[in-house]
Design goal:
Number of helices: 8
Shape: elongated
Largest sheet: 5 strands, antiparallel
Number of domains: 2
Radius of gyration: 25 Å
Order of helices and strands: HHHHHHHEHEEEE
Keywords: Membrane, Transmembrane, Transmembrane helix
Helix content: 55-70%
């Protein structure tokens, strides 16, 4: 019984971290347009950073730590080297295609964005697979640190992978924006006159509660994720109503 309790005590912190990551990612991915508009830029940047480091940690657990647990002894070294070689060739070909596409984009704005995004995703995936294959290929070497109780060296290596994931997320996001060049939409904010608030509230539907001071309303009863502009934000303490719409 004491052995089970000891194992649970060791696993409990990891379970707690995973649950926090799941909760945080659910919260960030469920944000609507109006949530983003009402969130200060500093908070958005901080949430974005937390999302990247949490996803990077999940990648460490799924791609690197998991590859240390699985037994690859039945696979020949030749087969594993072949896989990593194919993945490396795929990465180089897709990277070359993206480089050529970027050069063409400088002189010819009209290019096939869907094809570029597909190659972009392929290049990004091949880089993640390279990380996985590299860990699997050096499994015995990395496990020797654990069996030899050289935990600091193993943590340093995993830490380098962690930093690597964070950097590639920022790099590929900048690269994606460079190709897609999203148009920044303009929004208009209008405060409803006090004498019209009560009448307008009768026509609006409650969608969800952003916090205790802001209620999100809409002209139509829709799901939170499907809400579209115009959107109304009601402040019950002040009995004020603000409309957000596209200009």
């Amino acid at each position: 019984m004491s052995g089970i309790i000891e194992i649970l005590l060791k696993v409990a912190p990891l379970i707690t971290v995973v649950l926090v990551l799941i909760r945080f990612n659910i919260t960030t991915t469920n944000k609507t347009l109006i949530d983003l508009l009402l969130t200060p830029k500093n908070n958005r940047d901080w949430d974005d950073f937390l999302e990247i480091i949490s996803v990077s940690l999940i990648l460490i657990l799924t791609l690197n730590v998991s590859s240390l647990i699985v037994d690859y002894s039945k696979l020949s070294s030749t087969f594993k080297i072949s896989l990593i070689s194919i993945d490396g060739i795929l990465f180089l070909i897709s990277a070359f295609f993206l480089l050529v596409s970027w050069l063409l984009l400088l002189f010819r704005p009209q290019i096939n964005i869907k094809l570029i995004n597909f190659v972009f995703f392929t290049n990004f995936t091949s880089l993640l697979l390279f990380s996985f294959f590299n860990t699997a290929l050096n499994q015995k070497y990395l496990i020797s640190f654990y069996s030899g109780k050289q935990y600091s060296k193993l943590l340093i290596i995993l830490g380098l992978f962690y930093v690597f994931y964070i950097l590639i997320f920022y790099f590929y996001r900048l690269l994606y924006k460079a190709f897609n060049k999203p148009r920044v939409p303009a929004y208009k904010i209008e405060k409803i006159p006090v004498n019209q608030v009560e009448e307008l509230l009768k026509e609006l539907f409650f969608i969800y509660l952003l916090d205790s001071e802001r209620h999100i309303l809409s002209k139509f009863p829709v799901d939170r994720k499907k809400i579209t502009l115009p959107v109304y934000v009601y402040y019950p303490k002040d009995n004020s109503l603000v409309e957000f719409k596209k200009d």
